[in-house]
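> forwarded from #structure-qc
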């Protein structure tokens, strides 16, 4: 009888030990890798190519030719890419030559769409060029405050932005300007003054990306038309696997994923690593569908 009692007492202990071992084994097993998310017809909205008269690529280790861009597009599963020009002041003939080159390449290669450029300080000539390229099929305009040497608050810049809006062209601004601490506020003012123009801040203000939350605040009011968008070139790579990665994603979601675009900034960054970084950030399939495709279709009218 005593033996039977001991056996009855020992059985639950054995089950408890086995249960603990089982749970420990489960805890020690590595988590399953997430399923690969497949998005079709991925669009890269920011690429530079070598233009007539230029000898140096923006990245000495990567040729900036259209053929190299197409090669990288195929290798990274990207089906369409926005190619852009950029011009210096008082070079009207070069401006037109570069814009025509971009437009012609896009006509001959359906995987490209053309993003032309003017120098806003060229005044009326710049506004006239906006109208000309819009009539020839341009899908956007690229301006660069640092490279081109202008202040985003200049009235001549506003005139170009207004002209672009009149013809339905989004205006992409390089938004990394370490020397201009008020740049975010200037872009807010620009958006409020030009509600009919889509303004894209390339690189999401870079190291100042938390300032972009201002646009989320203004979106709660009646005057801001939510016409500012952001491309993720450079900034996504900069903060990948850093303590700021979660903050960057949180900021994007606070502003709204509808306002963001996938972009590589080729040839400064190669397409495949840019794509892989975005894939691994932790966005849902629905978010990636917007970032990779849907938002670009709406913003650039593709």
């Amino acid at each position: 009888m005593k033996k039977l009692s001991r056996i009855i007492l020992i059985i639950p202990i054995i089950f408890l030990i086995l249960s603990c071992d089982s749970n420990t084994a489960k805890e020690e097993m590595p988590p399953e890798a997430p399923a690969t998310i497949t998005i079709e017809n991925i669009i890269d909205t920011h690429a530079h190519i070598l233009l007539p008269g230029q000898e140096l690529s923006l990245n000495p280790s990567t040729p900036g030719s259209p053929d190299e861009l197409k090669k990288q597009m195929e290798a990274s599963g990207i089906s369409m890419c926005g190619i852009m020009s950029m011009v210096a002041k008082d070079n009207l003939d070069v401006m037109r030559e570069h814009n025509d080159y971009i437009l012609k390449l896009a006509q001959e290669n359906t995987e490209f769409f053309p993003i032309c450029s003017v120098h806003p300080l060229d005044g009326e000539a710049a506004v006239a060029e906006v109208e000309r390229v819009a009539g020839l099929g341009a899908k956007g305009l690229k301006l660069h405050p640092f490279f081109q040497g202008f202040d985003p608050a200049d009235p001549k810049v506003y005139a170009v932005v207004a002209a672009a809006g009149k013809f339905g062209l989004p205006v992409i601004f390089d938004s990394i300007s370490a020397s201009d601490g008020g740049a975010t506020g200037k872009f807010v003012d620009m958006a409020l003054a030009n509600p009919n123009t889509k303004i894209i801040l390339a690189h999401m203000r870079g190291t100042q990306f938390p300032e972009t939350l201002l646009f989320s605040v203004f979106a709660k009011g009646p005057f801001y038309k939510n016409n500012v968008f952001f491309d993720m070139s450079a900034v996504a790579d900069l903060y990948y696997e850093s303590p700021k990665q979660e903050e960057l994603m949180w900021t994007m979601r606070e502003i709204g994923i509808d306002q963001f675009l996938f972009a590589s900034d080729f040839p400064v960054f190669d397409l495949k690593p840019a794509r892989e970084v975005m894939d691994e950030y932790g966005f849902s399939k629905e978010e990636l569908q917007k970032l990779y495709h849907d938002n670009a279709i709406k913003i650039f009218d593709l």
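QC bot note: Residues 2-28 form the longest helix (27 residues). The domain at 42-300 is CATH 3.20.20.140 (TIM Barrel).
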